[in-house]
Amino acid sequence: MKRQAEKLVAGGFVLALLVLGGVATGSYLSVQRLIASRQWVEHTYEVLQGLDKIFDGNITVASGRYGYVVSRKETYLADYKAGLERTGQGIREVRRLTSDNPQQQQQLTVLEQVIAKRINLSQQSIALVQKGQSNEARQASFAKENLLLGQEVQRLVNSMKNEERQLLQLRKAATDDSVQQAIRINGSGYLLSFSLLMGVFLLLHLQIRIRQRAEAALQTYAEEIYDLYNQSPCGYHSLDATGTFSRINDTELSWLGYTRDEVLHKLKFSDLATPDSALAFQEHFSKFKQQGWISDIEFELVRKDGTILPVSLSATAIKGSEGDFLMSRSTLFDITDRKRAQTALQQANEQLEARVQERTAALSQVNALLHSELLERKQVEQALLESEKQLRTITNALPVLIAYIDVDQRFRFHNQTYEQWFDCSSTDIQGQHLSQVLGEQAYQSIKPYVKHALSGETATYESLITYKNDEKRWVSATYLPDINQQGAVQGYFALIADINERKLAEQAILNMNEALEIKVEERTTALKQLNDELVNSNRELEQFAYIASHDLQEPLRAVIGYTQLLMQDYQTHFDASAQQYAEYIVDGGKRMQQLIQDLLHYSRVGTRDLVFAPIDSNIVLDQVLSNLQVAIAERQALVTSDPLPTVTVDKLQLTQLLQNLIGNAIKFCRDDAPRVHISARRAEGAEAQKEKGEQREHEGGDSEKPQLETSSHPSEITWLFSIHDNGIGIKPRYLERIFEIFKRLHTRTEFPGTGIGLAVCKKIVDRHGGHIWAESQPGTGTTFYFTIPYHDPTAVGHDRDFAD
Questions:
Q1: Which member of 76, 154, 304, 766 lies 3.0 to 4.6 Å from 67 by CB, making a disulfide possible if both were Cys?
Q2: Full-prediction pTM beyond 0.70?
C-alpha cells in the first residue's frame, strides 16, 4: 500500500512537473515577448525625448541669438552655445535610435539641414553684431527668415513625433496581447497542476510532520538571512537588465528616504542619481553586464528630501545558463564619513560571523532531521545550497578581504576580493599558508597580530603593508578569534579593508594646511604693511587738504574785495562789458570761496575726533528743523516724522547728516510744496542688505559696479533711518554717482550748491560704521536710507570711528 501510494505520489508529481514545465515554457516565451515589446516602447520614448531635446536646443539657440543682438550681453552667447550643444546632442541621439527606420532617418536628414541653415543664419547675425556692422533692417531680415526656418523645424519635429507615436500605439497593443496570452497559458497550466496536486494531497499528509520540521528550520534560517540582508550596515540592491530596482534592503531605503513600494520595479538607479552620476552609471552599467563585476565605483544619489548621498558601489552580475544577464548583486557604502563607514563595516562583519555560526548550527540540526527521508533531504539540501550561495554572493560583493585562517595559518575560506587583489585563482589561495599568499615581507609585518588572534584575543591594526608583488597598501585589519565550546582556538576570521586613498588624502590635506598657513602669514604681514601705509597716506592727504583750503581763503577774499572796490570807485569809467566782466570775477570768486569752504568742511568731517554717546534722535531733529526754519518758511515745506530712537552717535555729525538730507529734500522740489517724512526702525544686518539688493535689482543695476558701502556682518542689528520726499526724483543710473564729491546732476541756475553735501553725508555714515543709499524714480520723489549700528547705551565717550 505504501509503495503504491509512493508511486501515485511520484506519478502525480511527474505529471504536475510536466504541466508546470509547459506552463513555464509558455510563460518564458510570453515574458520574452513582453520584455521585447517593453524595450521597443522605451526606445520610442527615448526617440521622443531626443526630438524634444532638438526642439528645445533650437529654441535656446534662437533666444540666445535674439538676446545677444538686443542686449549685447555675453551671457546670451553662453545660452546660444549651450543650445547648439543640446541640439547636436539631440540629433546624434535620434540618429542612433532611429537607425532601423529609413523613413525617420530621411526626415532627420532634412531636419538637420534646416537646423544647420538656421544656425548658419544666426551665426551671421551674431557676427555682424560683434563686428559692429549690424543694423535694424538686416537684423529684421535675419529674424524673419529665422522665424520661417523655426516653423519648418517645428513641422519636421512634429512629423517625426507623430510617426513615433503611431509606432508606440502598435507596440503597446503588442504588449497587451503578450500579457493576455501569458495570463491564459499560466491560468490553464496552474488550474491543471492544482487538480493533480489535490489528488495526491491525502497521501502527502503522512509526511507533513517531517516536512514541517525541515521547513521550520529552513524558515528560521531564511529569516536570519533576510534579517542579515535588511539590517546590514551597508545598502544592498539588485537591478534587472534595464537598471530598474528588483530588490533593495531596508538600510538603503532609510538612506534614500523612500519606501519599498516607491522604489521596486518603478525607479531606475539613474532616476536616483545626479545628472553626472546618471551618465557615469549608464557607461559603467553596459560594461558591467559584459564584464560581470565592478568594484568601488563612486556615485552621488539624491535622497527624497533633495540632499546628496555620496556612495561607493560594488556589484556582481548574476547570469543565466546561457550567459545572459539576469540581475545584479550590488553593495552600497555611504562614504560621507570614512571613519563611520569603517565602524559600520566592522559591525557588519561581526554580525556576519555570528550569522555564520548560527547557520552552521542550524545546518547541523536540519541535516539530522532530514536523514529520515531522501526526497525531503534533497529539497532541504538544495535550499541550503541556495542560501549558502546567497551568503557567499554577499561576501564576494563586499569590497573588503574576508577570510578564515586555521591554527596552521592556512586559508580555509576567502572571498573573491582576495583573487582580485592578488590577481590569482581560488586554488592559489585555498589551503595555502599566509606567507605563500601574501609574501614573506607582508607575513613578517602581520605575524605579531596573527599570534595575538591565535591566542584568543581580537587584534586590530592600521599599517602600510608590502605584498609579494611589491605593491604597498595601507590597510585596516581586524582579526576575530574562533573559539570552540571547549575554549580552544580553532583559527580566526580576518577582515581587511583598503584605506590607501584615505591615508593619501590625509597626507595631502596635512601638506595643504602647512602651505596655507605659510601663505596666510605672508599675506597678513603684507596687508598690515599696506594698511599702515594707507593710514599714513590718508592722514597726510587730509592734512594737506585742510591747509591748502585754509590758505586759499585769504587770496580769494582779496580778489573779491578789490574787484568790488573797482566796481564802486570806477563804475562811471566802465562800459557794459567791463561791468559784466567784473561781475563774473566776483561771482566766480564767491563760488570758488564756497567750494573751498565746502572742501574744508568735508576734510574736517574725516579728521575731527568723534565722541560717541547715546543721543535722542528726536532732539537732534528738532535742532535741524530750527536751523532750516528760514528755508522751510520760504518753500512752505511740511516736515513730519515718526518717533525716532536713541542711538549711539556723534551728536554734531548726526545733526549735519539730517540737515543735509532734509535741506536737499526741500531744495530739490520744483512746483509743489515740499513734503518730507523721517522714520526709523530696527533691522537685522541681513534684512538691510536684502532691501539694498532689492532696490538694485529694481533699478536694473549691474552687480559688477563698485559697492557704495562697506561690508557688515549679516546678523548685525542696526537702526534703519529713511527720509522720503516728493521732489523731482533721480534717474536710477545716477543713484551711485550722487554720493561722489562735486558730482552734480543739475546746473547752478536750476539748483544752487557745490555738489558736496551728499559726499559729506556718506562720509559721516561711513565713520559711524553704517551704509547709505537711495531709491528713486524721476517725478515720484526720493527716499534716502542710512543705517546706524546698534551699540550698548552704556558704552559712551568713544573717540574713535566705529568704522575703524
A1: 76
A2: no
